[in-house]
Specification:
It contains two helices and seven strands; from the N terminus they run αββαβββββ. By secondary structure, it is α+β, with helices and mostly antiparallel strands. It has one domain. Strands 1, 2, 3, 4, 5, 6 and 7 form a seven-stranded antiparallel beta sheet that branches. Strand 4 and strand 5 form a beta hairpin. Helix 1 runs antiparallel to helix 2. The longest helix has 17 residues.
Length: 140
């Protein structure tokens, strides 16, 4: 996606890396191979976590708006995060983006969740990206 995952997290680190609302610095994980790029960050926030979540969503949307292609956006009002059959967290709010790049013929799924842990008693903002390079959507 013309380096969507790297560009997205670069924007997030630049905009929020020193934000006063953070409890602590956050790490970004990016892994790549020839067919796929994945990225992830979990961000602990003090104070107005809903405002921080909205600011992150706006930043993500501004990045995907500049893709040479199309995107769909959906708001998630509630949900759950289930890992190996065990509910780990509640999704309190969320945005989901599906992005198609006409230039490099790739697609990406971006999830921004405001989560509340069930076993870890805290709330956080998570950002996850799955980018598929040379997707079959563009094959004839």
């Amino acid at each position: 996606m013309c380096n969507l995952t790297e560009n997205l997290f670069k924007n997030i680190k630049t905009k929020f890396g020193n934000d006063k609302r953070l409890k602590e610095k956050f790490n970004v994980m990016i892994k790549k191979d020839k067919n796929c790029v994945v990225g992830s960050a979990n961000i602990d926030v003090k104070g107005d976590i809903k405002g921080f979540f909205n600011d992150v969503c706006l930043t993500v949307e501004n990045v995907v708006k500049n893709i040479n292609g199309e995107y769909q956006s959906a708001e998630i009002r509630e949900g759950e995060n289930v890992d190996l059959g065990i509910k780990q967290a509640e999704i309190l709010d969320g945005r989901f983006f599906e992005v198609y790049c006409y230039k490099c013929l790739s697609m990406a799924f971006i999830r921004v969740w405001l989560e509340k842990g069930l076993y870890i008693k805290k709330k956080w903002v998570s950002i996850d990206v799955d980018e598929i390079l040379e997707t079959l959507w563009f094959k004839e």
